[in-house]
C-alpha cells in the first residue's frame, strides 16, 4: 500500500486518455475532488500544451501541466518554463527526415504544428488506409486529425521557439531505421529522444524529459519527489516513474513499465483505470 502523496502527476495517452483520445467525466470529477481535499494534481504528458484542450471535458482543471515530455511547464495558461530546440537542429533534422521519408510534425510554441509542403506527399502516404494492425487506434486517430486540420502546412519553417518534434512510421522497421539515424546524429549534436509507442519517436532538448519537468514544477510548489505519485503507461514515462517515490503503472502498460512501478491499476485506460485507482486509494 502506497503512502498518501501530496502531489499526483498523471500521464495522458494510455493513462487518463482512453484509446478514443478522451478523458472521461468520471476522471475529471475525481481530480476535482482530490484537489478540493488538498492534493496537488498535475498533468505530465508528451503532448504539447495546445493539444490538451480538445481531449479533456469542459471545465477540466489541474494545478499545472508538464508538456512535450518535460520541455515546458504551465500553471493555467501561463508558462513557467520553456526549453526550445535550436533552429539549426530543427533544419538539420527535417533534411534527414526528408531523406528517409519519415512523417514529422514540428511543434512551435503558441502556434500550430508545422510540416513543410515539399514533404506533404510522403507524409500523407504514411497515414494512408488501411491502418496497420500494430498501430494503436489512438495514435492513428491523432495522425488523421493532424493532417485534416491540426498541421499548418508551410513552405518554410516559421518561428524560433519549438517544443518538440514528433515522428511516425506505419512500419516498425521504418521507425527503427529512423531511430538509428537519430542516434548517429546525436554524435554531432546532443538532444533527447523518447518513444510512447512502437511506431513513433519524439525529439526534445538534451537532458530534458518528464522527470526534469516534474522536478521544475515541484520546486515551483515547494514540493518534493518523496511526496509525489506518478501514473503512466509507456516508455516516455520511465524517467517519471523512476523519479517519484510512488510510481504506478497502468494495467494496459507493457511488462517492462509495470516492473518499475510499486503498484498497478486494476483497470485499463479504457475502463477508467485512473479514476478507479485514485478513488479506491484516497476516497
Q: If you had to describe this structure to a student in words, what would you say it looks like?
A:
Helix content is 33%, strand content 23%. With 283 residues, it is α/β, with parallel strands linked by helices. It folds into two domains: 7-83 and 209-282, 3-Layer(aba) Sandwich (Rossmann fold), CATH 3.40.50; 87-205, Hypothetical Protein, Haloacid Dehalogenase-like Hydrolase, Chain: A, domain 2. The strands form three sheets. Strands 5-4-3-2-1-12-13-14 form an eight-stranded mixed β-sheet. Strands 6-9-11-10 form a four-stranded antiparallel β-sheet. Strand 12, helix 7 and strand 13 form a beta-alpha-beta unit. Helix 1 runs parallel beside helix 9 (273-282). The longest helix has 14 residues, at 87-100. The model has no long low-confidence stretch (mean pLDDT 97). Keywords: Coiled coil, Hydrolase. InterPro entries: Cof (IPR000150), HAD-like_sf (IPR036412), HAD-SF_hydro_IIB (IPR006379), HAD_sf (IPR023214).
Amino acid at each position: 500500500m502506497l503512502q498518501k502523496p501530496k502531489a499526483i502527476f498523471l500521464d495522458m495517452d494510455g493513462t487518463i486518455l482512453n484509446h478514443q483520445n478522451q478523458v472521461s467525466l468520471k476522471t475529471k470529477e475525481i481530480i476535482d475532488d482530490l484537489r478540493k481535499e488538498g492534493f496537488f494534481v498535475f498533468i505530465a504528458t508528451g503532448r504539447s500544451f495546445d493539444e490538451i484542450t480538445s481531449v479533456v471535458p469542459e471545465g477540466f482543471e489541474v494545478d499545472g501541466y508538464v508538456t512535450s515530455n518535460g520541455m515546458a511547464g504551465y500553471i493555467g495558461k501561463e508558462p513557467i518554463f520553456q526549453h526550445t530546440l535550436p533552429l539549426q537542429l530543427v533544419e538539420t533534422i527535417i533534411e534527414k527526415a526528408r531523406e528517409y521519408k519519415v512523417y514529422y510534425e514540428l511543434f512551435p510554441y503558441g502556434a500550430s504544428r508545422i510540416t513543410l509542403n515539399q514533404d506533404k506527399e510522403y507524409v500523407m502516404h504514411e497515414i494512408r488506409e488501411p491502418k496497420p494492425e500494430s498501430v494503436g487506434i489512438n495514435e492513428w486517430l491523432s495522425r488523421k486529425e493532424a493532417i485534416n486540420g491540426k498541421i499548418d502546412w508551410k513552405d518554410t519553417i516559421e518561428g524560433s521557439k519549438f517544443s518538440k518534434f514528433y515522428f511516425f512510421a506505419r512500419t516498425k522497421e521504418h521507425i527503427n531505421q529512423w531511430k538509428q539515424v537519430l542516434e548517429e546524429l546525436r554524435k554531432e549534436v546532443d538532444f533527447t529522444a523518447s518513444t510512447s509507442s512502437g511506431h513513433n519517436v519524439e525529439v526534445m532538448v538534451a537532458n530534458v524529459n518528464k522527470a526534469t519537468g516534474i522536478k521544475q514544477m515541484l520546486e515551483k510548489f515547494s514540493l518534493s519527489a518523496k511526496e509525489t505519485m506518478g501514473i503512466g503507461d509507456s516508455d516516455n514515462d520511465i524517467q517519471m516513474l523512476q523519479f517519484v517515490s510512488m510510481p504506478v503503472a497502468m494495467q494496459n502498460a507493457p511488462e517492462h513499465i509495470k516492473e518499475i512501478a510499486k503498484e498497478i491499476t486494476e483497470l485499463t485506460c479504457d475502463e477508467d483505470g485512473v479514476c478507479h485507482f485514485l478513488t479506491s486509494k484516497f476516497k
